[in-house]
Each structure stands twice: as C-alpha cells, then as structure tokens.
Design goal:
about 20% helix, six-stranded mixed sheet, alpha+beta, about 325 residues, globular, binds zinc ion, CNF1/YfiH-like putative cysteine hydrolases
C-alpha cells in the first residue's frame, strides 16, 4: 500500500443514461468522450513516449517539465507496453527504473536527480535544497536548486506544477480529495512565498490530467466535508444524474433521517476546487492552466485507478530547474 491511490470510494458506473445526460449538459466534460488536447497544452512525442507539456512553461529556457502518459515504456500491462512510473506489485523494479530514465530523457532532464515522496494524502510540503539521503513522506515538493527533478505520482489524483518565472522556483503537488480538502495547493503557494520569496501574483500553475467531474462520483458526505472548509464549496459539486427526473441539488436541503430518501451521490470537481484555492492564495486566474483531461475518460492516454482498479499504473508529473545563464547576464567586469 506504499503507493496506494486513495480512491476507496469506488463506485462502478453502470448508468449509461447518466453519462448521456451529463454529456448533453456539459459537452466539454463529456464522460467517455475523447477530450481534445488543445493549446496551450501539447503532447510531445519522443522515443515512443508522449509527454504532456504546457507552452508557457516550455517557453522558460531554464525550466524542464512534463506530465507523463501511459504510452510507450518498458512495463507490460494487459499485453501492452506502458510507462508505469511507480514501484507496484505487478511491475518489475527494472522496468520502472527504465521508464523513469526514458521520461527524464524525454523532458530533457537526463542527468537530474529525481526526487519523489512517499505520498500520504496529506498537506505536507517539503522544500529540497539537495536530493534527500532517505525517502521523505509528504505530498508537495519545492525547490529552486538546479538539477533536481521533482515528481508527483498520480492515477486520478490531481497533479499540480507551480513555477515562479523570476525566482526560478518550482513545485510539484499531489492533490487527491484529502489533499485538496487539506488545502495542499494553497499551502504550497504560501510556502513558496516563505521559502523563496515567490510572490503568488507572478506564479504560473498547471493542473494536470486527473479524474474529472464527469467521472468522480462521491457520496453525499463529501458535500459536508467540503462545505465545512470552503465558502464556495457548493460550486465544486454537481448532482449525480440518473435516468429519473432530476432532483436538483437535493443535498442542499437534506432533512433528518426518515423524512426523505437518502441523498444521492454527487460529482466532485477537484479541478475547480484546486483552481479556487490557487486564486484564494493570490495566483492570477489567467496564470492557471488546467488541462481538463479526465484520466477515467482517457484511459487510452492515462492510467485511472478508479476506472482500471488496483492493477493500473502510475503517471509522474515532473518539474525542475536547469543550470541556465541568460545571454548578457554575465558579469560586465
Ligand atoms: Zn471523465
């Protein structure tokens, strides 16, 4: 369970009518639809791998970054070669190490030291001035040290990469529902300000592929959890659609037990929740880029724990600082 994805509330979708309704209502989020990859996002194809990158990040010559996909790689899953980047029971250590090597080469970070955490669904953030001698636990990594490649492993949870263009500082965040509820991304912005003097107003944020509101059905108790923490939490939820007539926002007027049927499941929008936290932390809305790619809809491209079950791979979202000197920035002596 060292690298378990926290999707314990696993509800197998079987209501096709609900998918259709959802698609009609919100075509850009259609469950099962092949969501397009559009600018400023780009799939970089190299050596059999495909890595998702963000143009505003690619334009920074001192930055390396990428969100891995499942394509290519040395691991075998269901008879296909995949790029699993976490040490899991079904995969060999050699394959994972080879996959990591290939990903690092694909993002131009071949000689970087990869730093990843033992992820525990917390709001723990660890700044790194050097690669640690022993593995650390936590769910957010920061650095401004050249040569370190920070990595967040996911297979439905939300990977978020942060960049401060002037301070040349970066962060990689793993935000599942627990981390989101614990405000990990909001805390990461504050920690970057504290550690590296990164003004939030200048930060760039990339919200990577993860389970979308189209597929992330949760119990009504999640509404209680989130509304207890966030003033705008109602905006993160959508009613779960069924073939019946809709009972709009039933969870808003829940009555005591026995007075009406139990509240229906709802869909949670972790992208919106994390975007809201970034804005609350001082990041400009125009500097937040969300891929809006749902891992459960796009199992052709990504791993999805909820869709595929425990025998799925893990992606790695990576970011790091290169040694780089601007032309004309050398001493004039
Ligand atoms: Zn989806």
């Amino acid at each position: 369970m060292a690298d378990c994805c926290d999707y314990t509330v696993w509800i197998v979708r079987s209501r096709k009518t609900s998918l259709k309704k959802s698609r009609n209502r919100q075509p850009e989020r259609g469950a099962g639809a092949l969501q397009a990859i559009s600018t400023p996002w780009n799939l970089k194809k190299t050596s059999g791998l495909q890595v998702l990158q963000l143009a505003p990040f690619t334009r920074l010559p001192w930055l390396v970054h990428g969100f891995s996909t499942r394509l290519g790689g040395a691991s075998t899953l269901d008879g296909r070669k995949v790029l699993n980047l976490s040490f899991l029971d079904w995969d060999t250590k050699e394959s994972v190490l080879e996959n990591r090597r290939r990903l690092q080469a694909a993002v131009g970070a071949k000689d970087f030291k990869l730093v990843a955490l033992k992820q525990i669904h917390s709001a723990l953030i660890v700044p790194f001035g050097a690669a640690p001698a022993n593995p650390c636990s936590g769910d957010g990594l920061l650095t401004k040290e050249p040569g370190l490649l920070l990595g967040a492993r996911t297979a439905d949870c939300v990977p978020i990469l942060l960049v401060h263009p002037n301070e040349r500082a970066v962060a990689a965040i793993h935000a599942g529902w627990r981390g989101t509820l614990a405000r990990i991304v909001q805390k990461a912005v504050g920690r970057m300000h504290y550690e590296y003097d990164c003004k939030p107003v200048d930060l760039l944020a990339a919200i990577g592929p993860s389970i979308g509101p189209c597929c992330y059905e949760v119990g009504a108790e999640f509404v209680t959890k989130f509304t207890a923490q966030f003033a705008d939490a109602e905006e993160y939820f959508d009613e779960a659609r069924t073939g019946d007539e809709p009972n709009p926002l039933q969870w808003l007027n829940m009555r005591p037990p026995g007075h009406q049927p139990p509240p229906k499941n709802v869909h949670l929008d972790l992208w919106k929740a994390n975007r809201s936290q970034l804005i609350a932390a001082g990041v400009k809305a125009k500097n937040i880029y969300s891929s809006e790619l749902c891992t459960a809809c796009r199992t052709d491209l990504f791993f999805s724990y909820r869709k595929e079950g425990p025998v799925s791979g893990r992606m790695l979202s990576v970011i790091g600082v290169r040694e780089y000197m601007e032309l004309g920035s050398r001493s004039r002596d």
